[in-house]
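Trying the structure run again after the queue cleared.
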Amino acid sequence: MNKWILFLASLPLVAATVAHAQESRQDASVSYSGLFSPEVVGNGVHQTGTVADIGLVASYRYLLTPRGAAEVNYGYNRYIADFATNAASIRAHTQFQEFSAEYVYSAFSYKNFFPFVEGGIGGYFFGIINDNKTNYNPLKSSTQIGVPYGGGVAYELSPSFDIRVQYRGIVVKAPNYGATGNSTNTGRYENISNPIVGVAYHF
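Done. C-alpha cells:
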C-alpha cells in the first residue's frame, strides 16, 4: 500500500517534468566570449591582428519548429586595434558591440548532445575609448553591417539547463576610425573569430 501511495504521489512531479520538456520553446543564455580579428591590409594600411579581453554574449532563442529556432544576440568585448602606414602608427582602444539575429538549425541529437549550425545578419559597433590606450585624437566610432555564422553543440544537463560550446565567425567590413589621410581605412572585409561557451536556461 505504501508503495502505491508513493507512486501516485510522484505522478504529478513526473508529469510536470515531462510537460516542461515538451512545452519549452524558448531559452535565454549567457556566455563568455573571445574575439580574434585577423591581420588586414589594404589602401596602404596595415591593421594587425588583435586578441580581445574576455567578453560576454547574451542570447534569446525561440523554437519555431522541432529543428529550427530564431535567435537574437547581444555581444560585448574590448580590444586594441593597431594600424600602420608609411606616415603614421595609430592605436585605438575599441569597445565592440554586436546586435544580431540568426536562424539556428539542429539536424539531429545524440543522447544529451544537440549539435547545431546558425547564420544571420547583424549590426556591429566599433566604439572608441578615449583613454591612455588610444594614441590618436580625434578618432570616430564605426558602425558596420555584417554576417554572423557558426556552429556548436549543446549538452543537456537537465530539462531546464544546458551547456553550449560554439564557434562563431563574423564577416564584416574592417572598421575605419576616420584618422587623417585614411590611416585607419583598409577598405577590406575581415572574418572575426568569436568562440563562446555558456549556459542556457529553458522556459
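The chain has one domain: 24-202. Worth checking whether this holds up in the mutant runs.
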